[in-house]
Amino acid sequence: KNQVEQSPQSLIILEGKNCTLQCNYTVSPFSNLRWYKQDTGRGPVSLTIMTFSENTKSNGRYTATLDADTKQSSLHITASQLSDSASYICVVSAFKRGNNRLAFGKGNQVVVIP
Amino acid sequence: SQTIHQWPATLVQPVGSPLSLECTVEGTSNPNLYWYRQAAGRGLQLLFYSVGIGQISSEVPQNLSASRPQDRQFILSSKKLLLSDSGFYLCALSPEGGVLTFGAGSRLTVL
Q1: Mean pLDDT, chain A, as a whole number?
Q2: How close, in Å, is residue B19 to chain A by CA atoms?
Q3: pLDDT tens digits for chain B (111 residues)?
Q4: Rounded to a whole number, what is the distance in Å from the CA of A100 to chain B's nearest CA?
Q5: CA-CA distance, A60 to A77, in Å (whole number)?
Q6: Please, are residues B66 and B58 in contact by the beta-carbon 8 Å criterion?
Q7: Do A4 and B101 touch (CB under 8 A)?
Q8: For the residues of A26-50, what is the DSSP string, one character each?
Q9: Contact assessment for residue A22 and residue A107, using Cβ atoms and an 8 Å cutoff
């Protein structure tokens, strides 16, 4: 079973609308959680990184939330633009025995249409 | 700032042929380097990681290998490609286990 589950797998939204992507994880012990944006055919680019003590972090029109108790994170996109069309990947880090191990979600595929 | 260069960007190879994908980094020293593969509809799969020159850890048994001949160079190789090796290969670095920075990727198609 994948340690990081993302939903919805894909969604289509109208330009200018908001959307929220979900990430549930079972990774332990939790170190941090990151959201990446991956444009088609390109490498992922970091959007936000959140540690255990952080509940919310924003990067422009992207706002990530973290609930470490329920092991859930969300990425909210405000006033979507065509350039937001991409895959959004949730990555959870566990720090165990001196090693930083990463677990990747399969991504949320977002398509913004005019 | 840290940058990662990957090449070639795209590659089409016949089954059984060799492979060499190169990754070089700039703007950092002694980084942790990683090779990931991303198959269609699937998450990123860690293939190899390296914490220093000549130090390679393999995460998944397969017909691929990796080498780190220099601090800022990471190479992914195969002696004989399989159809299942097709995918999008990403090189990444993290300074001492920090946030991953990814390269632009190399698209490999094995026919």
Answers
A1: 92
A2: 20
A3: 889 999 999 999 999 999 999 999 998 888 899 999 998 777 889 999 998 999 998 887 678 999 999 999 999 999 999 999 999 999 999 875 567 899 999 999 999
A4: 6
A5: 9
A6: yes
A7: no
A8: --SSEEEEEEEEE-TTS--EEEEEE
A9: no
Is residue B101 within 8 Å of residue B6, measured between CB atoms?
Answer: no
Q: What are the structure tokens assigned to A70, written together?
A: 């329920």
- A99/B57 Cα distance (integer angstroms): 13
- Which of B36, B45, B102 is most worth mutating to test chain A (most A CB atoms within 10 A of its CB)? B102
CB contact under 8 A, A46 and B104: no
- Look at B42 and A4 and tell me if their CB atoms are within 8 Å: no
| Chain B neighbors of A3, CB-CB under 8 A | none
